[in-house]
Structures are given as C-alpha cells and as structure tokens.
C-alpha cells in the first residue's frame, strides 16, 4: 500500500470526526478523497460517499436517539420528501446525464468534470456559510412551532443536491432545523445526523442497480470513518461548535479552490 493510500485511509477518521462534531460535512471530504487520493471515477466516488456517510451517520444517530436528542417528527417532515428527489435523481437523473454534458465547437465538458465543478461550487458556498456563521436565531420558528411545509420543501431541495453530487447536505440541514423547526443547536446537530443517514442510504439504494462496488475497499474505509464519529461525538463535549465550523470552513475553502484549479489545469 502506497503512502498516498495510507493517507487516504487515515483521512477516513477525519470524515467521521467532522460528522460527529458538526452534524455534517463528511461528504464534502469523501468525494475529493476518493477522486484525488484513490483515483476513483467521479460518479462512482459519489456512490461510495453516500454509503460511507450514510453508515457513519447511522451509527452516530443511534447514539443520539438513545440520548433522546433527535426530534423524530422533524426528521420525518424533512426526510420523507427527500426520499423522492434523492432516489429519482440517483436512479434516473445522474445515469441519464449525457457524456459529454456540454459540447460547443472545440469546448467539451465531460459529465465527470461537470459534477466535480458543481461539487466545488457547493463546497465554496458551504465554506462561506461556515466561516461567516454565528449560531442561527430562531427564524420562522421563533414561537417554537416547526414549519413543516417549509421543512418538506427544503427536504426536497437538499434531496436533489444529495442525489446529484453525493453530499449529505449537513451544512444546509443544521441551520434549517434551527430556523424552521426551532430546535436548539445540539438537537439540530443530532437530528441532522439521522436525516443524513436516511438520505445517504436512499441515494445509495438508487445506485446499486447499475453500479459494481469494491466492498474490499469500501468496508474498511467506512469502518475507520465510524471510529472517527465516536471520537467526534466525544470531543464535541469540549470543542466550541462555532470555532470548529469556522476552522473547517477555511479547510473546505482550500480544498474547493484546489479542486477547481486542478480541473481547470487539465482542460
């Protein structure tokens, strides 16, 4: 095993650590790791990301459910609409995208590059939100009553994002649970982890019909990520969430810029 591969497997611990600490962000790391460290094709990397993030989040959510930190009604309102958009996008939309996605004279944009560019843009937006964020106020749910219709519509949108690029959308879900459901930040993080688990597995289920998976690679990587989420949940008791998110936001910004520059250099 090369040093680069060892670094890739070690980074699996970081994926779980981030999910445990912040309630999301793991998929922002997994896709670049799979593509640039392990050389996995982009579409397959998004499939692997869904499984790793889903399995890791599921383990973390079991702990949070046991501690009664998860709001199940809010989870249902957000996650159920996501089922439709995630499954349909993974089952039909992504496979149906033409390759190349765009061709104008001598300019050719392959599907794999288009997905990576879209992913990098999402990373930039996520980084901006995390760097600038303070704890969100109660927003529409200042009275403590969840806005279930708004949650459902947001779930549809996040589901489309998850299905298209293999991202769980935790950086979007957590503030929405605070703003639209009136959840305290610690309950929003715990509920977000369960929603990410559900969304990711639904998206993964849409892929297994037409994808060959390397379980000898995928399962060890996932196991290390699960170890990382236990560490993240432990350290979350000592690390200030706002400071963590800003630090992670700068890291995501650097990775996004690297992805864009690398892809542009190969045009």
Describe this structure as you would to a colleague:
Belongs to the 4-toluene sulfonate uptake permease (TSUP) (TC 2.A.102) family. It contains ten helices and two strands, in the order ααααββαααααα. It is mainly alpha-helical. The protein has one domain. The chain has a two-stranded antiparallel ribbon. β1 and β2 form a beta hairpin. α3 packs across α9. The radius of gyration is 18 Å and the shape is globular. The relative contact order is 0.22.
Q: Concise description?
A:
The chain is 75% helix and 2% strand.
Mean pLDDT: 81
Radius of gyration: 18 Å
Question: Into which percent range does the helicity of residues fall?
Answer: over 70%
The profile of the biggest β sheet is: 2 strands, antiparallel
Gross geometry: globular
Number of domains: 1
Q: What amount of the residues lies in strands?
A: under 5%
Low-confidence stretches: none
Which structural class is indicated by helix and strand composition? mainly alpha
Strand order of the largest sheet: 1-2
Distance between the termini: 30 Å
Number of helices: 10
Helix-strand sequence: HHHHEEHHHHHH
| DSSP, total strands | 2
Topology:
Blueprint: H1 3-22, H2 26-37, H3 42-66, H4 72-96, E1 102-104, E2 107-109, H5 111-132, H6 148-165, H7 170-181, H8 185-205, H9 215-235, H10 241-265
Antiparallel strand pairs: 1-2
């Amino acid at each position: 095993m090369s040093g680069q591969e060892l670094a890739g497997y070690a980074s699996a611990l970081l994926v779980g650590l981030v999910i445990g600490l912040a309630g999301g962000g793991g998929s922002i790391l997994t896709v670049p790791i799979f593509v640039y460290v392990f050389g996995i094709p982009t579409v397959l990397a998004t499939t692997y990301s869904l499984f790793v993030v889903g399995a890791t989040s599921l383990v973390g959510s079991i702990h949070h459910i046991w501690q009664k930190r998860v709001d199940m009604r809010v989870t249902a309102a957000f996650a159920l609409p996501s089922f439709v958009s995630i499954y349909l996008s993974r089952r039909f939309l992504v496979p149906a995208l033409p390759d190349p996605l765009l061709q104008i004279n001598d300019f050719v944009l392959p599907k794999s590059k288009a997905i990576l560019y879209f992913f990098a843009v999402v990373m930039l937006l996520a980084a901006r939100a995390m760097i600038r964020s303070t704890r969100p106020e109660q927003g529409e749910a200042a009275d403590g009553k969840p806005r279930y219709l708004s949650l459902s519509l947001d779930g549809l949108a996040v589901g489309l994002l998850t299905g298209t690029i293999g991202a769980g959308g935790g950086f979007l879900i957590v503030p929405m649970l605070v703003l639209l459901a009136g959840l305290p930040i610690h309950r929003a993080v715990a509920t977000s982890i369960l929603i990410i688990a559900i969304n990711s597995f639904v998206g993964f289920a849409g892929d297994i019909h037409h994808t060959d998976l390397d379980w000898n690679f995928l399962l060890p990587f996932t196991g290390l990520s699960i170890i990382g989420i236990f560490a993240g949940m432990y350290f979350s008791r000592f690390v200030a969430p706002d400071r963590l998110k800003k630090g992670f936001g700068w890291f995501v910004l650097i990775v996004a810029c690297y992805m864009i520059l690398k892809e542009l250099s190969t045009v």
